UniProtKB/TrEMBL annotation, chain A:
Transmembrane segments: 26-48, 119-139, 145-171, 199-221, 227-246
Record key words, sorted: Membrane, Transmembrane, Transmembrane helix
Protein name: ABC transporter permease
Entry keyword annotation includes Membrane: yes
Organism: Companilactobacillus paralimentarius DSM 13238 = JCM 10415
Residues in the signal sequence: none
Any Pfam family: ABC2_membrane_6
The keyword NAD is annotated on this UniProt entry: no
TrEMBL record, chain B:
Listed GO MF terms: ATP binding; ATP hydrolysis activity
A Pfam short name: ABC_tran
SMART domains: AAA
Sequence ranges assigned to domain ABC transporter in this UniProt record: 4-257
Protein name per UniProt: ABC transporter ATP-binding protein
Keywords for the protein's UniProt record, in alphabetical order: ATP-binding, Nucleotide-binding, Transport
Top-level taxon in the UniProt lineage: Bacteria
PANTHER family: ABC TRANSPORTER ATP-BINDING PROTEIN, ABC-TRANSPORT PROTEIN, ATP-BINDING COMPONENT
Automatic annotation (TrEMBL), chain C:
Superkingdom of the organism of origin: Bacteria
Alphabetical list of InterPro entries matching this protein: ABC-2_transporter-like (IPR010390)
PANTHER family per UniProt: SLR1174 PROTEIN, SLR1174 PROTEIN-RELATED
Keyword presence, RNA-binding: no
Residue stretches spanning the membrane: 20-44, 56-75, 118-138, 150-178, 190-209, 215-231, 243-263
One Pfam family hit: ABC2_membrane_6
Annotated keywords: Membrane, Transmembrane, Transmembrane helix
Lineage of the organism: Bacteria, Bacillati, Bacillota, Bacilli, Lactobacillales
Record's protein name: ABC transporter permease
């Protein structure tokens, strides 16, 4: 475990140095991501200037859900974004060879290789929103503990979906569009599921379970109800999806065909 | 005990068959058809510790595919290899600690970082202790002359510099086995020379077992005591360079220096048929022939009877000719 | 002629095949993006359900539905990324190859883009625009389909595409200064999405902000054609927004020329 953290540190610092080769661009990019989130908030503000409550939730509560959604999304984005590249080109161009000739777990190697600093835009806005709206939550010690515990599980759902879909590239050569299609469902996670129709509700709960990355856990903290489904479901779903996706990934590696050169 | 043991190694690739036309394109998008393609067939060989094995063959013969199986990148369809007492695919992470790999057409260096940084990341990945790392870097610097460009970002290196840097990267952790897949491809003579010397020195100092694939027979002649030749995925030869020359090396070359360049018009070797060919450059005429069909004295006698000659030199078989000849024959059989 | 066809047939079918695989990917991407439009749809649906008013900032629910999907479609129609490779080309030095070619730099990108653009739009128009039309005809309370508005929409959207093309050319030249376009791209996209009205109709903003945004070139990229389609403008307003669009088009054509001359003088290509 210490070695894992150590390697993570090394990779992060290298990646930062690499990014800093393009300093101006990098700073502008972080501003861009930040701005993107701020503009989305203005959008929410516009919506709530029309109605006091949305499907029974107040602006404060929606802001809490929205902020909660950004934390696992941002963490996954920050640490594990290199998975996109697997389905985009690493497998197709045979560049995945490199990971197989190094004495560390290839999945771990892929995961730690990048450190997507623009994710700080999401994380920063997420934290600000949570702080702003935390008064709506009736915090207890138990809730605080559960909150901290739920974040890594929620992050794992994002990462698991990316691992599973990018592993499809081992058979299909290119799979980033599939990852994209799955990933885009995260947009549904930021709002109460009750505003969606039954089909979408079912998909985002159990098939591409992004609702568990935000709305379900957040609604427990807001209402204190249904801890078994809202948080228990999160843990179960996240463990199951991570397990399945790692299985797919490992199976994929033994089907890896490299590329003729 | 041998360092590398390969037994009946086979690799099939699945290739999509493309049906022609627009309808075909749609069909293969929805329900692709496949055919299997045997890139490597039933290879078996062993390499003792400390040997440099030259792995040769034409383009597409299956060299890289074999190397990829030996390094654990590809899973063989059947057969196995055992290297350093490990099966690469079964125990990959452990296995790769003791090997180094260079693919000439790829790089494992961090593109946007100064070269030095790549080495410090690799040091961590391979868990090389500080003391060994500095000693090793000194050695590699000396052998491969990295100092001139070690602080430059990798993307600014020339091909030759990059290749030297890549070889150094594969050697940082002092591997027991080194796989070099076309390490001199596209390089000019002086860089090739530097790289050959480095490989030789590493092999001698560390008793590193090396498998080297190449197109360049100069590499083979300078470095390898043994060659293994494949074609269409199958073994066609395994032995020393000398044996290779004995087996296939009936090609002889005689160079005549004529008194008058115009005399060359009078040369006529038609009585020997297709077993002989010649080329002329001013006063020098090179005659190449198959010495199992035409004898050296006969060629000299005939030439002297036709033209005035100033000087004669008889050359030994050149491995390049041998390989080219075998391939040409193979190609003719497959056409 | 048949000889000619026979000779080039393999190339053509290889090209088609590649195009089909590429399109399949493109469609999956587009499908992914459509999800965003659906989220917005459900959100507004909830807003209208929670509200006591039947019309918000001048939009009825059916109009809002049309706005959401039409602005999504218009976004695809007018998008231009032919020049997005400039960043990479500057980074790896291959931009030099473009500069060496005896074709105008902009024309070069335009021809590269226009072919695939027509196919993409053609393929997407069927489900998207078809869906919009069906909704408009079958749905209750939807604005009546109006041929004049439809024509105005296509004219305005074409101008919007051209503005976007030249705007992106201008923008991509910043690669010469930033070296890598990723960051400025993120910033640009965030701003354009917001200010062009693709996130929220500009009518929902406070009047002062609205007036500023309507004059800026971004509203010409999306808001103008969509509002024309919905028939939200009077004759006089229609003429003035179209003139504004044309003004911005000319402006960016000239700007692109000026920046190009400037950039070529200051061109420094990184080693590669
Ligand atoms: N990843 C792959 N998928 C399909 N076919 C491949 C792949 N890699 C190599 N091949 C095919 O296998 C044969 C051997 O290739 P390779 O081992 O790269 O040859 P060499 O290195 O000797 O030039 C070639 O015909 C090549 O087209
Ligand atoms: Mg090869």
């Amino acid at each position: 475990m210490r070695r894992v953290l150590h390697l993570e540190k090394i990779f992060i610092s290298q990646y930062l140095k690499q990014t800093m080769e393009y300093k101006a661009d990098f700073i502008v990019g972080v501003l861009g991501v930040l701005l993107n989130q701020v503009l989305n908030l203005i959008f929410l503000q516009v919506i709530f200037s029309q109605v006091p409550k949305l499907a029974g939730w107040s602006l404060q509560q929606i802001v809490f859900i929205y902020g909660f959604a950004l934390i696992p999304k941002g963490l996954d984005h920050l640490f594990f974004d290199n998975l996109w590249i697997v389905g985009q080109k690493l497998v197709r161009k045979g560049e995945f060879d490199k990971y197989l000739t190094r004495p560390i777990n290839p999945l771990f190697h892929v995961l730690v290789e990048t450190f997507q600093v623009d994710a700080f835009g999401e994380l920063l806005v997420g934290v600000i929103l949570l702080v702003m709206s935390s008064a709506t939550v009736h915090w207890t010690l138990l809730k605080v503990i559960l909150f901290i515990v739920s974040i890594p599980f929620a992050t794992a759902i994002y990462t698991a979906l990316k691992i599973g879909t990018s592993a499809a590239a081992f058979w299909m050569k290119k799979s980033n569009t599939i990852t994209y299609l799955f990933y885009m469902f995260n947009d549904f996670a930021k709002y109460p599921v009750s505003i969606f129709n039954h089909l979408i509700r079912w998909i985002i709960s159990f098939v591409i379970p992004f609702a568990f990355t935000a709305f379900y856990p957040a609604s427990y903290f807001l209402t204190g109800k249904n801890v078994l489904f809202n948080l228990g479901g999160l843990v179960v779903i996240s463990v199951v999806f991570l397990f399945i996706s790692i299985k797919i990934w490992n199976k994929g590696i033994s089907s890896y065909e490299s590329a003729g050169s | 005990m041998s360092m590398i043991e390969v037994s009946n190694l086979t690799k099939d690739f699945r290739k999509t068959i493309k049906s022609p036309g627009l309808v075909g394109a749609f069909k293969s998008l929805i329900k692709p058809k496949y055919e299997t393609f045997e890139a490597v067939k039933n290879l078996s060989f062993e390499v003792p510790k400390g040997e440099i094995l030259g792995f040769i063959g034409a383009n597409g013969a299956g060299k890289s595919t074999t190397i990829k199986m030996l390094t654990g990148i590809l899973t063989p369809t059947s057969g196995y290899c055992r290297i350093n007492d490990k099966i690469p695919q079964e125990d990959r992470q452990n296995y790769v600690k003791d090997i180094g790999v260079v693919f000439g057409q790829r790089t494992q260096l961090w593109w946007d970082l100064p070269l030095r940084e790549t080495y410090s990341v690799l040091k961590e990945i391979y868990n090389v202790p500080d003391k060994n790392f500095y000693k090793r870097m000194d050695f590699l610097n000396e052998v491969l002359d990295l100092n001139d460009f070690i602080t430059s970002p990798v993307r600014t290196l020339s091909l030759g510099q990059r290749m030297r840097a890549d070889i150094a990267a594969s050697l940082l952790h002092n591997p027991k086995v080194l796989f070099l897949d076309e390490p001199t491809i596209g390089l000019d003579v002086s860089v090739k020379d530097k790289i050959r010397h480095a490989i030789e020195q590493i092999n001698q100092e560390e008793q590193t077992t090396i498998i080297l694939t190449t197109h360049d027979l100069g590499d083979i002649e300078l470095l390898c005591n043994r060659v293994f030749m494949i074609d269409h995925g199958q073994e066609v030869f395994d032995g020393t360079i000398k044996q290779l020359k004995n087996r296939f090396g009936h090609i002889r070359e005689i160079e005549f220096e004529l008194v008058n360049a115009e005399d060359a018009n009078r040369l006529n070797f038609s009585q020997f048929g297709s077993a002989i060919e010649y080329s002329q450059n001013e006063k020098n005429v090179r005659v190449k022939f198959d010495s199992s069909k035409v004898s050296v004295p006969d060629v000299i006698r005939l030439t002297l009877s036709q033209v005035d000659v100033q000087d004669i030199s008889v050359k030994d078989a050149d491995i390049e000719d041998i390989v080219r000849r075998i391939f040409r024959k193979e190609a003719a059989e497959h056409d | 002629m048949t000889n000619f066809l026979r000779k080039y047939r393999p190339f053509v079918s290889a090209g088609i095949e590649e195009a089909i695989v590429y399109r399949a990917n493109f469609l999956l991407f587009a499908l992914g993006n459509t999800l965003g439009a659906f989220v917005t749809y459900f959100l507004w649906k909830a807003v209208f359900q929670s509200s006591t008013n039947s019309s918000l900032s001048g939009f009825t629910f059916p109009e809002m539905v049309l706005y959401i999907f039409l602005s999504f479609f218009t976004g695809i129609l007018t998008s231009s990324d032919g020049s997005s490779s400039v960043g990479d080309e500057v980074k790896d030095g291959s931009i030099a190859m473009r500069i060496l070619k005896p074709i105008s730099f902009t024309a070069n990108y335009f021809y590269e883009e226009i072919g695939s653009k027509l196919i993409d739009v053609g393929v997407l128009a069927v489900p998207l625009f078809g869906g919009i039309l069906i909704y408009q005809i079958v749905g209750t309370g939807t604005p009546v389909l109006n041929l004049g508005n439809l024509l105005l929409y296509f004219f305005s959207a074409t101008v919007a595409y051209l503005i976007n093309f030249y705007f992106n050319i201008c923008f991509s030249f910043t690669a010469f200064f930033f070296r890598n376009l990723w960051g400025s791209n993120v910033l640009k996209n965030a701003l354009v999405i917001f200010m062009s009205g693709s996130l929220v109709p500009l009518a929902f903003f406070p009047p002062v902000l609205q007036n500023v945004l309507k004059v800026l070139p971004f509203s010409s990229l999306l808001y103008t054609p969509v509002m024309l389609y919905l028939g939200k403008y009077s004759m006089q307003q229609t003429i003035s927004v179209l003139l504004l669009q044309i003004f911005w088009l000319i402006f960016f054509i000239f700007l692109a020329k000026i920046i190009w001359h400037f950039a070529i003088k200051h061109l420094s290509i990184q080693g590669g």
